[in-house]
Amino acid sequence: xxxxxxxxxxxxxxxxxxxxxxxxxxxxxxxxxxxxxxxxxxxxxxxxxxxxxxxxxxxxxxxxxxxxxxxxxxxxxxxxxxxxxxxxxxxxxxxxxxxxxxxxxxxxxxxxxxxxxxxxxxxxxxxxxxxxxxxxxxxxxxxxxxxxxxxxxxxxxxxxxxxxxxxxxxxxxxxxxxxxxxxxxxxxxxxxxxxxxxxxxxxxxxxxxxxxxxxxxxxxxxxxxxxxxxxxxxxxxxxxxxxxxxxxxxxxxxxxxxxxxxxxxxxxxxxxxxxxxxxxxxxxxxxxxxxxxxxxxxxxxxxxxxxxxxxxxxxxxxxxxxxxxxxxxxxxxxxxxxxxxxxxxxxxxxxxxxxxxxxxxxxxxxxxxxxxxxxxxxxxxxxxxxxxxxxxxxxxxxxxxxxxxxxxxxxxxxxxxxxxxxxxxxxxxxxxxxxxxxxxxxxxxxxxxxxxxxxxxxx
Length: 459
Fold this sequence. Notes:
Layout: H1 2-25, H2 31-40, E1 64-65, E2 68-69, H3 74-77, E3 78-80, H4 87-96, E4 109-111, E5 114-116, E6 120-125, H5 129-133, H6 135-145, E7 148-151, H7 155-159, H8 172-180, E8 189-192, H9 195-199, H10 202-207, H11 213-217, E9 221-227, E10 238-242, H12 243-249, E11 266-270, H13 278-291, E12 296-301, H14 307-317, E13 321-325, H15 336-341, H16 346-358, E14 365-369, H17 375-383, E15 388-391, H18 393-424, E16 438-440, H19 443-449
Parallel strand pairs: 6-7, 6-15, 7-8, 8-9, 9-12, 12-13, 13-14, 14-15
Antiparallel strand pairs: 1-2, 3-16, 4-5, 10-11
């Protein structure tokens, strides 16, 4: 008996040594990823635990893996360079007849056909639960701040155009009027239309809506063509919705299974990404200019390899703005594999904008998006050629913390950061930012943008 026990102990020790050695040999193997797929099947494609959390979280691509950056960002690759000699400060002093402060920095300008208090846009957020719940707080705060506000795809179709389809979730028109009725002298509203929204002729309804028409006459309305987003370029929308809602929407969206024939509490709803060619995009812009002559035309892009062609077509056909969303952009509906492996980082999108400027495209607003949230991001982006910065998650988080007041506070803090940094660079108008104000901490990034490398012996 004792011999048998001894043999068992020896055998267990041998197994332990073997297992430990195996674990050390393949310690970086993704056991958890494979196990999650084995447990949850297709639901494991998305970065969620419980199904009910779909659309209720603020997610996005991680820039770190095992504690190290996966790619280069505006934070770890670019730095601002203040000068000792500031002749423009002297000019400002002569204008004001006093020493200028950072509060004298002008951030006003034109962005995508709108007059704005500063070049920040609340990116178009759609019909997900989290975006819907905080939409009115963000709309009111953005309007009062004089910045552009976007309404994403599927809102009218899923939440209702003028009356609420779902309890606790504002209708499309509630979002629209929450913004427009609080606008003063600055701002603008951009509205996306998905393939499914087009079935209901959303843009036609907006353009002929008597309540909205006065604001169209004032030049406060724009329509945004969505050709993708940073988190899942080339893919359509996916969301878990209650079965009753799925039954109502089944004629407009794709469902793998008939919602009326399943017993699940939540059903997966799919929307298509839309199909574009150069001719389709040209035709769409021309149609919009004819059908909606008083509306601004914006184009929202994911991190695509042919972004340069989209920018060229937008410029040639008279669009007002193009937004490039880098892969750090966030959404609760992006597959994990897309967040990691589809598209390029935001800093590359900024290089695409710089390339367009070098080709002589000056009168088209070009905006950058994707994990941008503080004043340094705005100043660096504009110094390198962007017209403005497009953000979404920061406004959601601010609203989650303190409602409308939280969004107002966040915008005010962002404004002060931008003004402080521009003042430190010896300038007093955001339009005066340029190459001399920014340098690279990385040789490849310096070469990519054609700017100074701070560790060079010739710096």
